[in-house]
Design a protein that fits this description.
Helix content is 43%, strand content 10%. The chain is mostly helical. The strands form 2 sheets. Strands 3-4-5 form a 3-stranded antiparallel beta sheet, with no helix packed on it. The chain has a two-stranded antiparallel ribbon with strand order 1-2. Bound molecules: zinc ion.
Length: 126
């Protein structure tokens, strides 16, 4: 089973600069990996069936093997019916994810310092 993209080391290196240097094709595949992981995990937003649906290469859409609906990598998301290129959205995601990651680091550091102070003061409750 393939590892989910968000759990991979590759997702931690998604920088804004790297995203803006991508081609539209690369941005499409990264967006697809972010959403579904691998080809076998593509989920139809209409019926929810997870499968390796029929990929329509020229339109960059899939046709569901179960219900027959056509969907894109952004169908059923806030990015559906997008006008800007996918890499603009990827850059926004990278900015957001990096900001959250930085906040979590700061939160963890503050928590560690607070725990250490509580241990020293004898007020640590676990
Ligand atoms: Zn379907």
């Amino acid at each position: 089973m393939a590892q989910h993209f968000l759990l991979s080391a590759k997702s931690r290196t998604l920088s804004v600069r790297h995203v803006m240097e991508m081609s539209h094709q690369e941005a499409f595949y990264v967006f697809k990996a972010l959403r579904w992981g691998g080809d076998e995990n593509i989920t139809c937003p209409w019926c929810g069936v997870i499968s390796n649906h029929y990929f329509q290469r020229t339109r960059k859409t899939w046709r569901c093997k179960d219900c027959g609906h056509t969907f894109s990598v952004t169908s059923g998301t806030i990015f559906a019916f997008h006008k800007p290129p996918l890499k603009v959205y990827l850059a926004a995601i990278a900015i957001y994810a990096n900001a959250v990651r930085q906040e979590l680091k700061q939160f963890a550091i503050k928590g560690f310092v607070l725990d250490k102070k509580r241990l020293e003061n004898g007020t640590y409750l676990g």
